[in-house]
Design brief:
Length: about 750
Amino acid sequence: MKKSKDNPPVSLPRLKDWHALVIISALVAVYFHEILLMKSFFWEDFLYQFYPFRNFAAAAIAGGELPLWNPYTFSGTPFQADIQSALFYVPNLLLSLFVSGGKLHFYWVELFIILHYVLAGVTMYYYAREIGITAWGALLSGIIFTFSGFMVTHAIHQVVICQVAWLPLILLLFRRALMRRSLIYCILTGLTLGHAVLAGFPQISLYIFFFLFLYFIYEFLISVKEKGLKNSLALPPIAAGAIIIAVALTALQLLPTMELAPLSQRAEITYEKSLEGSLSWEQLITFVVPHYFGSSGAQGSTYWGPGAYWVFWETCFYLGIPAAVLIGFALAGIRRNHMILFLSATGLFGLLYALGDGFIFHKFFYSFVPGFETFRSIGRMTLYTTVAGALLGGFGLDRIIELVKVNNTVLRRGALIAACAGILLWFLAQTGSFQPDGSGHAAAQVHRSAVTAMILFLVCAAIIYLLYRRNITLVFGIVTFLIIQFADLYIFGFDQNNSKINPDEYYGRTANIVDFLKKEGGKEYFRVNSRQGGAMILDRNQGMIDRIFLMEGYTPLSLKRNFPPAKNWDGVCDLLNAKYRISINQQQRQMSLAASDTYLPRAFLVYGVKVISDEKKLQEYMESGEFDPRSTVLLEEEPVFIPSMPSESASEEIKITSYHLNKIELETATSHDGYLVLSEVYYPGWEAYIDGTREKIYRADWNLRAVPLRSGNHKIEMKFDPASFITGFWITAATIGLSACGIVYSQRRKKNVSQQKGRPT
C-alpha cells in the first residue's frame, strides 16, 4: 500500500549482532557453495603452492616432526624460514588434526580459507559498529568487504586472505587501545597483529603496518585538536607498544626469514620489476565495469588489458555498483565526519599508489621508505581502497536512512545522479564503446558487464527515489540494497575460483610414475629432474605431497644457488643426484622419465680439494668442463686440512642409516683422509657431528655440503638447528609470557580501582 507523507515509513527494526553473524555466514556459504559441496575446487596458486605447503606441514607435524627443512623441492630448501610456509599461524597448526594416512585432504584447506571470509565479514561488521556506523550499515560494510573484488580474486592466495581477514579486528582493537588508553587493548592489538603477520605474506604485512601508522596519525591529530597536546602524549607509546609486541611475537618467523631473504632470488628487485602488477589509469573504469578488460579465472582467461593474465586479480578493486552509489552519499557528508575524511583520503592514497609509474607515490616510497622497494604487484595496495570503500558504503547507507527520516531532497539528487550514470553506461554500450580488441567472447563479457552496471545503477536510483517519495518502507529499501549488493558481487565473481580440477585427481594423474619412483626410492636415495623449459612431468611442488626428492620447486623465496653451474644440464643433474630425468620426444609430443647412470650418489667421498673463493671464477671453472666432482671438491674458503691424494685406490663405504626432515645420519668407513660430500643443499643452520664431535660444514661444489673426514669408521649426524629459529622462539615465548602477565596485571589493577571507587567514604 502506498504510504502518504503524513505517515512516513521511517521505522527500521533493530538488527542484533548475532543476526549479522548468521547473515554473513550464510552468504559466505552461498557464495562458495560449489566448493563447499566439492563440485568445484580452488585453482592456480592454491593447487600449485599452498595446498602442497599445507599438506607437507600438517603431515610432518602429525608425524611428530617440525618441518624446518624441506628436502623434497629444489634439492632441499628451508621450509619454515620461507614466510609463506606460515608454519606457526594457529589455523594452519590446527590442520594437522585432520591428517589421515599421512596426508591432509585438500578440502580442509579450502574450508579453512572459506572460514576466513566469515572472519573478515564479521570483524568488519564489528569494526564498522565501533566507528559509529549503525548495525544495518555495518552489515553492508561486512558484505562489501567480504565479497569485494580484492578478496574474491585472491581466494587462491591463502596467505593473503588469511592475513587480510584479521585487518578489521586489528583496527578495532587498535582504536580501542588509543581511545581508552588501554594496556589490555594495546597487548591484544599486538598479539592479533603479530598472529596475522604469521599468516605469511610480508607485502600485506607492510601495508597493514603502514595503514595503522596512517590511522594513528589521524587519531593523534584529532586527539590534539580536541584534548590538547599534553593529553594526547599517551597515544604514541600505546601505538608503539602494540607494534613492538607484534614484531616480538613473530620473531620465531621473522628472524629465520631475515636470514633467508638475502640468500633468495627475491633479495633484490629493480624498480621496473616492482611495477609488475600495477594499476593503469584506464583500469579505473573497472570500478563500475569490472570486466571491461575481460577476466582471468578458473574458467579461463579473456583478459586483454595491461600486463599478463594475472594482472586481472592483482588490480581488481571492484566493490559493487550499490557500494559505489552509497560511497557517493558518504562523500557528500565528508565535512560532518572526520572518519569519512580519513577513509576517503586513505582509499584514494591506495588507488594512486597502485598506479605505480602513473603517479608519484610508488616511486617516492620505493626510493625513500624502507620495505616498499621489496615488492612487485603493487596493485595490491587497492586493499586500502577496499577497506575504505566498504566502510564508506556503510556510512552512505546510514546517510540515506538519515535523509529518509527527514525527507531531504538530497535523496532526489542522488537518485538523479545514479540514474544518469546508468544512462551514460547505456549510451556508451550502444555506441560500441565497450568493444575491446580481444576475442568475441571477451567483447560479449565486457558488454554484459556494462549492461549489468547500467541496470544496477538504475535499480539503485529507483530505490532511492522511491524512498524519497515514500512509496516503499525504509526497511524494504535497505534490505533491497543489501540484496542487490550481494547479488552484484555474486554475479561478478562467484565462479572466479571454481575450477573443475580436483587436486587429488590432478596429483594422481602421474600415480604410476610416483609408485615406480617410491619403489625405487626404497633401494637408494636419489632425486628426479621433472622439468625442462615448459615441459613438466611432475608438478613443481609435487614432491611435498608424494615425498619424492625433486630438483624443482615453486616458492617466491627460492635460494639463489638452486642449481650448480656445469658444462651442460646433465652435469647439473649429476651433481644433484638426479637418477631420473625428464625426456621429451618433440616429434611425438610425449614426456617420460629416463634413467641416468652418471649421477653422483647422495653421499660420496673425494680426496682432492681445490679452493676458489671468487664466485665468478668458481662458476667459470665449473662450467669449463675441467671440474671432476668425483675426485675433487671445490671449496670457497680454506679448510682445516687438505688431504693428500691416496697412492692407491682407497677403500670406502658410506651408508645413510636415517633420513628425516631436519636430520641425516650416516655410517662411513674409509682407509684414507678425505672429504665427505653430500648432495644436499648448503644452508646456515646445518650442523655436523662426527662421532659426537661437532665439525664444520663447508659449502662445496657451489651449493652442496662437505665435511672433512679422517680415515677409519665413523658415525655422522647432520642436524638442521638454526640459531635464528632458536633465538626467535625464545623471543616469541617471552612475548607471550609477558603479554599474559600484562593482561593479568591490568585486569587486577582495573578490579582494584573499581573496588576502591565502590567503597563508602
